[in-house]
C-alpha cells in the first residue's frame, strides 16, 4: 500500500528522520522521486538508492500469494477470526460474528439500527477476551454526528450490568472509543490514510465508518454527468484503504452503507 509509512518498511531510523525533513514520509512520497533526487536527499550512491527503491516497492506492492498461503496464514494467526455480535442468530448467519481481517458492509433502510449496532460493536471490542471481546480500543469515524458517548455508556450498562458495575469501568470504556467526526469524502479519505499509526499506538482492534453513504449522498448527485465516475472512484479508494487496514492489522471493519 503506497501510503505505508517508511518507518514500517525496514529503513533505518536515521534515514527515516532525514527523509521526513524533506516531507518524504510514506512509500508514495519516496517512490515518486527520481533516483537522482533520492541520491541528493539521502546522500547515498546510485546503487544504494536502487537497493532502497527495490526494498520500498517490495514492501508496498501487493505480493503474489497462493490460496494455500492465505489459508495457512489465517489458521496460524493468534488473533480471533471473528468478533461475536452476541446476537446468536446473526452470529450463526455470519459463521461466528463480524470477521476480523476483512471489511463488513452493514446495509439497511434509515432507522433500522445500523448506528446502534456499530455502537454496540464498539462496546464488545473493548471487552476482555474472556468475555468474547478483543480487549482493544476502537476508532469510530462518524460522518453523521450520530454517535453519542451517552448512548455508548447506556448500551454498555444495559448489555453487561455485572461487568460495567462501577463508574470507573464506564469511564474507561468511553476513553477507549476514539471518535473522529469527518463530514466530507476528502476528510474521510485523509483520516483513513493517516490511521495506521493510531492503530498501532493506541491498540485499535476495531475500525468503524458510520456512514460512507451519507458523505457520498451529500457530495455526489447521481443526476449530474461525471458524478457516478467520481463517486465510484471515491468508494473504490475508501474500500481499498479499509481492506488494507483490516488485513494488515487483522481488524474487523464494519462500514455502513
Ligand atoms: N439513544 C437511543 N435510545 C434508544 N433508541 C434509540 C436511540 N437512538 C436511536 N434509537 C433508535 O434505534 C433505532 C435505530 O436507529 P439508528 O441505529 O440510528 O438507525 P440507522 O443508523 O440504521 O439509520 C431507531 O428506531 C431509533 O429510534
Ligand atoms: Mg446511522
TrEMBL record:
Tree of life domain: Eukaryota
Q: Which InterPro entries match?
A: HHH_XRCC3_RAD51B, P-loop_NTPase, Rad51_C, RAD51B, RecA_ATP-bd
* Gene Ontology, cellular component aspect: Rad51B-Rad51C-Rad51D-XRCC2 complex; replication fork
Localization (cell): Nucleus
- RecA family profile domain location, by residue? 79-257
Keyword RNA-binding present in the record's keywords: the answer is no
Calcium found in the keyword field: no
> Keywords in UniProt for this one?
DNA damage, DNA recombination, DNA-binding, Nucleus
Which molecular-function annotations from GO does this UniProt entry contain?
A: ATP binding; ATP-dependent DNA damage sensor activity; double-stranded DNA binding; four-way junction DNA binding; single-stranded DNA binding
Which biological process annotations from GO are given for this protein? double-strand break repair via homologous recombination
Q: Which family does it belong to?
A: Belongs to the RecA family. RAD51 subfamily.
The name this protein carries in UniProt is DNA repair protein RAD51 homolog 2 isoform X18
